[in-house]
Each structure stands twice: as C-alpha cells, then as structure tokens.
C-alpha cells in the first residue's frame, strides 16, 4: 500500500508541505451547509429512533470520542481535521473524501449511518445510498445476461454509496469467481466517486489503522487497498456498543 513516507528530515518537510497544502485546499473548498449543528443533532436523534425503535443513548465521552467526527464531517466543520479518532499519519483528511468507519461488532455502525442516510435524503451534497456488501454479492450472483452485468456496474458506478460491513463478504461466484468489492473499489476510485464504508477491525489491529488496512491486502490486493485508503477518511470508533 503506497503511503506517504515521512522518514528522514527532507522527506518529512516535503510531506508536511504536501499535507498542509491539501488541508488548506480542503478548508477553502468546504461547503457551507444550510443547517445548523443543533438541527442536525435533532434530526439524527429522530431518525435513529425511527429506524431502531429506541432513543439514542449517549454519554459525553461517547460523543467526543466517536460521534463528533462524523457530525463535523457532515457539517464540513474544520474542527473535523483535528479529531483524535481521525487517522492522519502520512495522509491528509479531506471533505472531498468519503468515510471509512471502523468499529467492533455491536458498536452500531449500521444504525448510525442508516440514520444519517435518512437525514441526508434529498440533500445532494451529502445524499448517499447504503447497501450491505453481502447484498452486493447476491446481486452480482443473480446476474443472468450481459445486459444485467452492464446494469449492475452502471448502478454501482454512480452517486455516493456507503458499503456496509466491508471485508465480511464472500467471493462472488457467477460463471467464475469474482472479488466484486475489489472491482467496485477500483472502478469508483477511477471515477473519483465519493464512497463510504463501514467495517469491523481485523482482530489484533483494532487501534492500528495502517496495520488494519495492510491485512486487507491479502483479500483485496495492494492496489485496491491503496485506493481505499486514499478514497476515505479513516475514523476509528471506540467501544463495543452505541448503547452506553
């Protein structure tokens, strides 16, 4: 996986300048959204309860350590760039990138993002459709004709999509074996389409984003993981569950 090498004084200086320039560009290109933090918070809680049937329960630490990064991202608030759970080693965070939310099983990543999906429905800058990677594999395996295949790739090669539960899917089997999420990562990267993902951390790499992504190379390949890393802001979600 190609990351910016920050070893050595000269390289350090060059890399820091690159990251500073990207960060400045990110700030200057941020969107001023027509809603407030208070509105977003209330809409999120309402949609969360509508989706789960339960009120959103939280503590101050939970908000500060986990949820604030997601809210600040959707607000295009420059405070996002300094969130502690946003991985920044050798890469520059950007509002132009998607989100890669990594948290343990039971954290509630799907519930969180389903709620944001509903909040952002109809708001073009942040509207996204959410789909399980297992459903993507099932849809690919159901392809029966060349036109079906064209339609499949056309559907997944446009708009902003959140692929839920990455690295849990099986290899698709439809007249040959296909790593379909690898294909979609590469295709969407080439088209510069904003893409979000959720995933569980690889065991042993819960607090090591770089190591976590390097492990994925054995399944998706180095090029796809490199694209994934550079397509997304990596946010580490701490704890076991949203119900705290």
TrEMBL record:
Q: Which InterPro entries match?
A: P-loop_NTPase
Q: Which domain of life is it from?
A: Bacteria
Taxonomic source organism: Winogradskyella pulchriflava
What is this protein's name? Uncharacterized protein
């Amino acid at each position: 996986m190609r990351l910016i090498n920050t070893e050595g004084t000269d390289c350090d200086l060059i890399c820091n300048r690159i990251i500073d320039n990207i960060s400045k560009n990110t700030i200057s290109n941020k969107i001023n959204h027509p809603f407030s933090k208070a509105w977003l918070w209330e809409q999120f809680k309402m949609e969360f309860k509508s989706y789960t049937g339960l009120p959103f329960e939280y503590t101050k630490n939970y908000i500060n350590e986990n949820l604030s990064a997601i809210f600040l991202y959707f607000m295009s608030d420059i405070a996002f760039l300094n969130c502690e759970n946003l991985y920044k080693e050798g890469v520059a965070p950007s509002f132009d990138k998607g989100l890669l939310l990594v948290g343990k099983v039971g954290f509630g990543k799907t519930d969180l993002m389903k709620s944001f999906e509903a909040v952002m429905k109809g708001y073009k800058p942040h509207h996204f459709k959410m789909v399980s990677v297992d459903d993507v594999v099932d849809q690919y395996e159901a392809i029966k004709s060349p036109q079906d295949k064209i339609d499949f790739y056309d559907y997944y090669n446009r708009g902003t999509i959140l692929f839920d539960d990455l690295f849990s899917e099986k290899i698709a089997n439809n007249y040959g074996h296909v790593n379909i999420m690898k294909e979609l990562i590469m295709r969407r990267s080439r088209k510069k389409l904003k893409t979000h993902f959720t995933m569980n951390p690889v065991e042993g790499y819960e607090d090591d984003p770089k190591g976590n992504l390097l492990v994925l190379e054995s399944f998706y390949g180095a090029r796809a993981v490199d694209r994934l890393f550079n397509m997304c802001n990596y946010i580490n979600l701490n704890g076991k569950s949203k119900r705290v």
